Amino acid sequence: MNKKQNEEGLKRLVATYFSDPAKRLKLEKGDVLLEEGAVNDRLYLVLQGSFIANNENIEDEQQQLFLATKDMFIGVISFFSRSSICVATIVAKEDCEVAFIDHNQRNKAEKEGLSLIEQFMPVVVFDLFQRQQREQQIIFEKEHTLEKLYQAKKLASLGQMAAGIAHELNNAIAVVSRNASWLNEHVGEMFLQENEEAIRFFQMGSETGQSLSSREIRVQAKALQNKYDLDEDAARKLAEINVPSTIKLPPLEQLNDFINRSHRYWELGASFHDLNIAAKHASHVVGSVKALAAGSSGIHNGHVSIQESIDEALTLLSSPLRTISVRLKIRELPDILANKGELVQVWTNLIKNAIDSLKQSGTESPEVYISAKPRATYVSIRFQDNGPGIAKEEQGKIFQPNFTTKEKGLDFGLGLGLTICERIIGNYGGEISVKSRPGKTVFKIKLPL
Predict the structure, then answer these.
(1) Average pLDDT over residues 108-130
(2) Contact 388/436 with Cβ under 8 angstroms?
(3) Would you say 293 and 401 are in contact if contact means Cβ atoms under 8 Å apart?
């Protein structure tokens, strides 16, 4: 029997058996229509409102069996069975009206020899089928709710663990940061006593670090190699230093020694520069994990240059980016009110994820493209890579805690990177979204001005 046939059969039964005004009851919310274990000789049809059916389980606790709404039957089992015993307590969920027939009901069958139960059976079976579907849906929703509660408990435990780890890491990072600053200062003083050249290149590295991208270094190294007839290694070192035009280079016969010596001083300063940035970044990461565990937001501590925050992120990832081309197209941007460390953390997560995807898939000519431009009310920043992409069914899950698309899963970390990114961007009133297909994955961020 389909839905239409059931509706037609129900109309006939209502017109034949449930049209007697004397056999109708009105109940108020909370009234009991049937009591579990009591005798029942009536079959009820809900005309208005809804009823909840409950019974006691083996622990003597009340559990909901089903919800009976308009045009549904109540008392089917007790009415048509020989026991006539109610298997559930039926309570009005709201003000209701029902019609009923009892065991004294005269058979009004259109066809001779058709019993009362044979007339009702098709409609009752369909009613029970719909009721079973509703119960399955209720069971599914309960299981879903329990799963969410289970996940919430897991996250609560993870938050407590993260807060404890963050506290321990914070102490270690403070030591690294203090000692890096102390070493930077005292090594500089030592070079100052040695010679002017040493301190000059050490300070260049310490103040700016590696200011050029890997692509820019390759281009500049090629030009220097041709200009000064240098070998490939010397040309790369000179390009990395990015010697300003104000510094006069020695004659060609002394140039190789000068480059090796200067690069050594510069590289030491650049290492301190990167160490200081990494310590600050690690401190912000720890703070964000603690904030995630506590459910608090970050602090906006001043006007921040998005360009500078992206540059810092690229500096932190300069080593894994050596084999990946990085293209930048960043227009002149207004500063925004934000926490610089949090922005660096977001950009680092997005770039690192792109690097992992490109290396994991073995993408030919791997590339990360970063662009940013101002709009009327916000700044738009895009991080794009030419990796394998993210499966469509996974794109809606990547901001969830504990979810990762990496082959080794959570061996890489806690699976909280993008969750924290979304929280940071959300705290600034911004948005982060992803679009992906094979060969092109784009994370787009909007930050309000």
Answers:
(1) 78
(2) no
(3) no
